[in-house]
Specification:
alpha/beta; Dihydrodipicolinate Reductase, domain 2; Alpha-Beta Plaits; 3 domains; 6-stranded parallel sheet; 17 strands
Length: 438
C-alpha cells in the first residue's frame, strides 16, 4: 500500500514557482520511484489567477492571498518562490509557526534572515531547505554541507551570478562595451530593469554569505562581505588581461586563512588555463578546496525555471523522506551543529591578501616608469611585471600595466594614493585583483 501523498503549497507561480509545479507534474512517475509516495501541489498563491503559468493549474487551487497557503491545514511543505525579503520572511515564519516545512530559492532571505528563520524552525521541529538559493541547479550547498563534510574547507571561489558572467563574456569575445551588453542582458531577461543587484555584486554577496557559513561553520554575515561590482570595468582592461594570459571573472571568494576569513566579491583576473576561467555566458561554477579532496569544481546552470526547480524539488524529496520521523531535520541547516557555529574573525578589506593588476595613464616622458617602480619598492611590494603600452598616434599619454605579487590590500591602497598624486599621472589607477586559485 502506497504512502499518503505529500501535499505542497507554492507561494508565487512566477519563473521558479511555475517551474517547480511543472517539474513535479512532468516527472511525477520518476519522483514516485525514488520516494515511494506522490508529491502533489494542493494550492498556490498568484497575483493574477487568469495568467498562463506554463503548467497545469487545473489540478490545484489558486488564491490571491498567500496567507491562505501558509495557513492551509492540509499542506505539509510550503515552497516560497515570491522573492524579496519582507513579505517572504513573514510568510516563511508563519508557515514554520504552523508546523510546515519550508523550501525556498530566496538567497537574500537566507543571507539576511536565515539565523532567525533557522531558530524558529528548530523550535517547531521543521525543516528549512534552500539548495536553489545558490547556483540554481548545481547542488553546491549539498555538495559542501554533505558530500565534503569530512573535509576542512580552505577555499570557496565561484562565478555565482550569471548576468555578470554573461556581460564579461560578451565584452571579451565580441569587444562590446559594458553598457551595450547590459542592455541586451535586460532584453534577454538575464538582468532586471534595475540591474544593480547583479552588476553591483549584491546578488553574489548574498550567495557567498550562505556558502561561507556552510563551508566554515560561521554565522551568516552579509554585512561583512566586501562587495565590488563590474560596472567600472573597461574594455581595455578585458583586452589587456587577455594579452597577459588572464580572463576577468566576477568572483565570490571565501577563504580560510591563519589570520581569519576573507569574504569578498569583486572582478578578478584568473589564469586562462584554469577551468573556472573558461566558464562563459550565464553559467555558474564554484571551486571548492578541501584538505582531503583537494580542488573540486561544480558547474552548471545558475538560474532559469527548470534548473532552479530541479533543486527545489530535490529539497521537497529530501523533506518528504523524513516526514513522520521523530526529528524532521536530520542535517543541521548550515551543516554544523548549532552550538558549534564559530564566531571566527572576518578580515576587513584592507587586510585581504592578493596579487593585483594595476593600470594607469601617464605622460609619455622619461623617468615615469622608474618613479612608478620606486613607489612599490618603498612599500616593499614586489612587482611581477611592468609594461608600458605603445601610445596611440598623436597622443602624449600611455598606459602602464603593473602586476604585483601577493601583498596586503592596504599596501596597494597606499601605493595607489601615492601614484595618483604624481604630476605625470593622468588618470585614476584601475585596480583588479589577481587570483591563481592553485
Amino acid at each position: 500500500m502506497s504512502k499518503q501523498a505529500v501535499k505542497i503549497g507554492i507561494l508565487g507561480l512566477g519563473t521558479v514557482g511555475a517551474g517547480t509545479a511543472r517539474l513535479l507534474q512532468r516527472n511525477a512517475v520518476e519522483i514516485y520511484r525514488r520516494l515511494g509516495r506522490d508529491l502533489r501541489v494542493e494550492i498556490a498563491s498568484v497575483r493574477d489567477e487568469k495568467a498562463d503559468r506554463g503548467c497545469d493549474t487545473e489540478s490545484f487551487a489558486l488564491t490571491a492571498d498567500p496567507m491562505e497557503v501558509v495557513n492551509h491545514p492540509g499542506i505539509d511543505i510550503v515552497v516560497e518562490a515570491i522573492g524579496g525579503e519582507t513579505l517572504a520572511k513573514q510568510l516563511v515564519l508563519a508557515a514554520i509557526a504552523n508546523g510546515k516545512h519550508v523550501v525556498t530559492a530566496n538567497k537574500a532571505l537566507i543571507a539576511l534572515h536565515g539565523s532567525e528563520i533557522f531558530a524558529a524552525a528548530e523550535q517547531h521541529n521543521v525543516s528549512v531547505c534552500f539548495e536553489a538559493a545558490v547556483g540554481g541547479g548545481i547542488s553546491i550547498i549539498k555538495s559542501i554541507r554533505e558530500g565534503l563534510s569530512a573535509n576542512q574547507i580552505k577555499l570557496v571561489a565561484g562565478i555565482i551570478n550569471g548576468t555578470g558572467n554573461f556581460i564579461l563574456t560578451e565584452m571579451r569575445n565580441k569587444g562590446r562595451i559594458f553598457e551595450d551588453v547590459l542592455q541586451e542582458a535586460q532584453q534577454l531577461g538575464y538582468a532586471e530593469a534595475d540591474p544593480s543587484f547583479d552588476v553591483d555584486g549584491i546578488d553574489a554577496a548574498h550567495k557567498l554569505t550562505i556558502l561561507a557559513s556552510i563551508a566554515f561553520g560561521i554565522p551568516l554575515q552579509f554585512d561583512k562581505v566586501y562587495c565590488e561590482g563590474i560596472s567600472g570595468l573597461q574594455l581595455v582592461d578585458v583586452a589587456y588581461a587577455e594579452e597577459l594570459g588572464y580572463r576577468i571573472k566576477h568572483l565570490g571568494i571565501a577563504k580560510l586563512t591563519a589570520g581569519g576569513i576573507e569574504l569578498r566579491v569583486h572582478p578578478t583576473l584568473i589564469p586562462e588555463k584554469r577551468l573556472i576561467a573558461n566558464v562563459d555566458g550565464v553559467m555558474n561554477a564554484v571551486l571548492v578546496k578541501g584538505d582531503a579532496v583537494g580542488n573540486t569544481l561544480h558547474y552548471g546552470a545558475g538560474a532559469g525555471a527548470e534548473p532552479t526547480a530541479s533543486s527545489v524539488v530535490a529539497d521537497i524529496v529530501d523533506i518528504s523522506r523524513n516526514l513522520g520521523s521523530d526529528r524532521a531535520c536530520h542535517i543541521p541547516f548550515l551543516g554544523f551543529q548549532a552550538d558549534s557555529i564559530a564566531e571566527l574573525e572576518v578580515k576587513p578589506d584592507g587586510q585581504f591578501e592578493s596579487a593585483y593588476y594595476l593600470r594607469v595613464e601617464v605622460n609619455d616622458v622619461a623617468g615615469v616608469m622608474s618613479q612608478l617602480a620606486s613607489v612599490f619598492a618603498d612599500l616593499k611590494v614586489s612587482l611581477e611585471a611592468i609594461t608600458q603600452k605603445e601610445p596611440a598616434r598623436g597622443e602624449t599619454a600611455v598606459s602602464v600595466i603593473l602586476i604585483t605579487q601577493r601583498t596586503l590590500e592596504a599596501q596597494i591602497t597606499s601605493a595607489i594614493s601615492t601614484i595618483e598624486a604624481m604630476p605625470d599621472v593622468r588618470s585614476a589607477v584601475q585596480r583588479i585583483r589577481v587570483e591563481h586559485l592553485d
